[in-house]
Amino acid sequence: MRWAVTGLGHGTDNAFLVIAGVCLILFLLIIGLMSYFVFRYRRSKGVEPEDIHGNALLETAWTILPVLIVLYMFYYGWLGYDARRKVPEGALTIKANGQMWAWSFEYENGKPSDRLVVPEGRPVKVTLNSRDLIHSLYVPAFRVKQDAVPGLERTVWFTADETGEYDLFCTEYCGTGHSQMISKAIVMKESEFTAWLAGTAEAKAAPAPAAPAGAELFKSKGCAVCHTVDGKPLVGPTLKGIFGKKVRVSTAGKEREVTIDEDYIRRSELEPATDVVVGFPPIMPPQKGVLKEEEIKALIEYIKGLK
Amino acid sequence: MANEGAGYLGTEGRPGGISSWIFSTDHKRIGILYLVSILSFFVVGVSLGFLMRLELISHGPTIMEASTYNSVFTLHGVVMLFLFIIPAAPSIFGNFFLPIMIGANDVSFPRLNLLSWWFYMAGAALALATLALGPADTGWTFYAPYSLRTGTYVSLAVFAVFVLGLSSILTGINFVTTVHRLRAPGMGFWRLPLFVWAVYATAWIQIVATPILGVNLLLVIAERVFGIGVFDPAKGGDPILYQHLFWIYSHPAVYIMIIPGMGIISEIIPVFARKVIFGYRAIAYSSLGIAGVGSLVWGHHMFVSGSSYTAGVIFSFFTFLVAIPSAIKVFNWVGTLYKGSIVLGTPFLFALAFIFLFSIGGLTGLILGALSINVHLHDTYFVVSHFHYIKFGGAGFAFFAGLHYWLPKMTGRMYNTKVANWSCLVLFIGFNLLFFPMLILGIEGMPRRYFDYLPQYSTLQIVSIVGSWVLVTGLIMMFVNLIRGAFRGPRAPFNPWGSATLEWQIPSPPQRENFEKIPEVTKGPYDFRGLR
Ligand code: HEM
Ligand SMILES: [Cu+2]
Ligand SMILES: [Cu+2]
Questions:
Q1: Which of A16, A59, A136 is facing B304, going by the closest CB pair?
Q2: Which is nearest to B411 in space by CA: B478, B482, B476, B348?
Q3: Most C-beta atoms within 10 A of its C-beta, which of A270, B190, B213, B496?
Q4: Is the C-alpha dihedral spanning A236, A134, B240, B369 positive or negative?
Q5: In sequence order, what are the residues at sequence separation of 6 or more whose Cβ sits closer than 8 angstroms to the Cβ of residue B466?
Q6: pLDDT per residue over A66-90, tens digit each?
């Protein structure tokens, strides 16, 4: 087992060692006694069995002792949990968003990231949201896990005390891409982090274009998880050559036919539940408030160009 | 099966046509119906589990795609829980033996009993029909809002579980009534065999908790079909409410699975130690205790879903308390061995394996119940391992123990005990190879319901996969041996193990009418004086 790299995690590890240790002792005791009795009192020794109906003292003891043991375990587990409740003041706030099937993070200065980058030794508070289903943010090395529930903001906090790259998973089952909803949590030295946050750390010497090309957005915004551009439907319909075509959609429960134009694409991005293509589940997360105006335009152009 | 003039199994030496079985109201025939159907579904469930393991032998799609894998684990869960382990002990052994053990000729409502089996089969048919149409891919938990949105046949799968729940409730009602109304003269509550106590406690959970599941499932269907917003936040619903309603049933359901198994073990241990069970009343009360406290712990499945902090602490507290009655049972079983005269019969070997595996299951449960540790281990392979230790290592091995204990009575024939002992050993080794590595995988952070995994988890995954091969070998050995024994084994005597309970005082197999004259009970179920 690899030790935790957060303060909270040390508490968890201690509780684990103590509780698992007690459990191991209990287990050895039970199995040891059982094996000894089976060996010692085997039939072939030819001893008459002795009917013992019970023993009040013994039975009381083995009720009360375990109660004390489990209360101790309960208390120990609670201690480590209590610490998780109080977010220290001055914590760096990062917004995290789950969506089928990618994580996205946003920093106080508006910087977006698909990895959770945090400074070493500073408390970090993550506020979690989800655009579609329940996901769960899990960084094993931090011993941190919290469900992201659509419509209900949740928070977790931690202070990472060792630089490095750690796995970040989704642990609430969320469909086909659940096991691909993996990213990294990266702990940096404070100075490095400041540079990263300001955007100067990335080796992008060339000034980034104002709006990234549609093709890039299509990947980075997670569209490609459900839509292909090669004609094969996936979770959602393929987007190859759809512009100008007619398609059957279900609008408020009624089927109708529409022609795919710019307006339709825009509507499908922002409020996908309005017109749902017949034969596909209504599961696409709405991108309203997620995509910026230039990004919407770039994506429409990109989709128009898919021949 | 044995039939030469053989009691309930046939009239004048013939087992009779299929309709004399599927329309029979004889509790013993219904028990056999359940035996055959439940074991068939168990084979389906094992095959699915086996395929899931095989898929993970290499990275990326090996024998199936991610979406198929997701459907497979959903179906595996649904089949194993609702078609195998929930009904296995109560519906097979409960039906067959509960009336005989209390000195009755049948259950209180024989026709209702048959109806339960039909509901069970209907539910099973619906569940398996989804396989052809487009199996649900939600996991057996059907969590909202995913279960409300995915395009697969969730409504049908949910309806199947609803129908199975109905069957479970009817069986529960039947058993409670039977225990209260049909005990033979002299069979006071404190002379009931502990298996009867266990089935009785289970029946109460079935009656009280299952309707909540029913309502919950109907709400899911209503939401899917009519678009009513109950659980889907996009429609103003609350997905956390779903989890509460789901676990209010499904946690007690864990005890529906394990308590009858504990009852089986409580029958077997004294018989093979040749002495009275230690702490009879404590074992009986602890079944009721588990049933009671067990209904107050459902929130331990939701520590990280962000419900209130206080609720988390309270649920953790009760989770630790519910461990006590289970621990007491284990102590009593081990205590019974003290100063016994122990015969190492096959059922007893399975019972020892049960104590070993169930202890691991229970103790890992304590680890999971501790709040701060739960945050780390929740929804990882640690949980997968923990519940397999409880449900398969515990309830499953208890069921196997029961099969080896009671089949000679049910079929009138004996299996080969040597092969049976070997199959127990192979199963035990396979089981631990399969599931122990998962505990470590979980501690190292591997999430469950993952179709693929990061390279650092490969070694342990492979060990576990090899374990699944060993386990399946053991299962094949065991079943082939039992089936051969049932049809061709040598005749079994009345009372091959020297048991004191009533089912062993009548012929093997029993007559159509259990007792020509309802017996008068004059001693306790584990009084072996005169039988040693
Ligand atoms: C051959 C024996 C078995 C094998 C190889 C096996 C294997 C597995 C595996 C690999 C998983 C999925 C873990 C994950 O990805 O989360 C799983 C899940 C599960 N298994 Fe088994 N299992 C076996 C027997 C059983 C038995 C006997 C039971 C119940 C009595 C059972 C009940 C379950 C349940 C309830 C799940 C959870 C399904 C879900 O996540 O929705 N399994 N099993
Ligand atoms: Cu997920
Ligand atoms: Cu539970």
A1: A136
A2: B482
A3: B213
A4: positive
A5: B433
A6: 999 999 999 988 888 888 888 888 8
* pLDDT (0 to 100) of residue B3: 40
Q: Residue A299 in contact with residue A214, Cβ under 8 Å?
A: yes
Neighbours of A279 (CB within 10 A): 10
Confirm whether the ipTM is greater than 0.85. Answer: yes
Contacts of A76 in chain B (CB under 8 A): 370
Distance CA B205, CA B199 (A): 10
Architecture in CATH for domain A9-85: Orthogonal Bundle (1.10)
- Our answer on whether the CB atom of B139 is closer than 6 Å to any ligand 1 atom is yes
pLDDT at A212 over 90: no
Interval between CA A256 and ligand 2 midpoint (Å): 33
Contact yes or no for B443 and A1 at CB 8 A: yes
Could you tell me if the CB of B85 is within 6 A of ligand 1? Answer: yes
Give φ, ψ of A77 to 5 degrees: -65, -35
Which CATH code, of 1.10.3470.10, 3.40.50.300, 1.20.210.10, 3.30.2130.10, is assigned to B16-505?
Answer: 1.20.210.10
Question: Could you tell me the two tokens for B376?
Answer: 């780390």
Q: Which amino acid is present at A117?
A: V
CATH architecture of A214-304: Orthogonal Bundle (1.10)
Q: Is the pLDDT of residue A270 over 70?
A: yes
Q: What is the pLDDT of residues B232-249, one digit of tens each?
A: 887 778 888 888 888 888
Name chain B contacts of A281, Cβ cutoff 8 Å. 149-151
- Could you say which of B145, B372, B447 has the minimum Cβ distance to residue A171? B447
Name the average pLDDT for chain A.
Answer: 85
